[in-house]
Automatic annotation (TrEMBL):
Assigned GO CC terms: cytoplasm
Signal peptide: none
InterPro entries xrefs: Glutathione-S-Trfase_C-like, Glutathione-S-Trfase_C_sf, Glutathione_S-Trfase, Glutathione_S-Trfase_N, GST_C, GST_Omega/HSP26, Thioredoxin-like_sf
Entry protein name: Glutathione S-transferase
Domain of life from the UniProt record: Bacteria
Domain GST C-terminal, first and last residues per copy: 106-229
Family matches, as SUPFAM superfamilies: GST C-terminal domain-like, Thioredoxin-like
Pfam families for this protein: GST_C, GST_N_3
Gene Ontology terms for molecular function: transferase activity
Alphabetically ordered keywords of this record: Transferase
Amino acid sequence: MALWFHSSHQIPALTAAATLPVLYSFRRCPYAIRARLALAHAGLACELREINLRNKPQALLDASPKGTVPVLVLQDGKVIDQSLEVMLHALRGNDPDGWLQPTHGSLEDMLALIERNDGFFKQALDRCKYPERHDAEAVNQAQADALTWLAALNDQLEETGYLFGLNPSLADMALRPFVRQYARIDEAQWNEQPWPHLQAWLQRWIDSALFAEVMEIYPGWVPGTRGPVFAAGIVGSD
């Protein structure tokens, strides 16, 4: 059984003038953040097209009719429209700090944790963020599920400070954008939780040069124009 949903297909190759892959992104989306983390870490330069999710450009929909981000269009027209697939594509090309080779566990172990994050925790996170969209029972269960998940991550981080050993890994970078989103719901409550290892793990990343690189603010993309170059150089990770 696959540990993640694979989605890639082909559209006509980019024009000769388009010398870089094209990344459709939205700055605050945790899926887009994780994709940009891997692209920046791998030094895989691309043309960044920052989009408005309420007014999706036709070029995005032509590349990926589901209309979500991130979407990476390679020079040959291949489309990768799942965030984890974008990460793996970038890191298989260049992985200077060994994100795909954890010192504890395996790639399969990391993918299993990411799958659980993207299912179990993401559902709880959405209900905690938007309680007005759900009944009280569902919200209460989501809050309990989120606390259980985050406490388990804190325990996993206790020994080494990272999820799979001594160094940052694919799992750390795939999960941090979602934990950050939870922490931002109520920062005072987050700071009061008994999760010192999880809080330190998140803060190290927020304070890193890599985070600053991927969270830079870009103007919205105007169809028919070239977007800025993103991830032109390799930056460190933490």
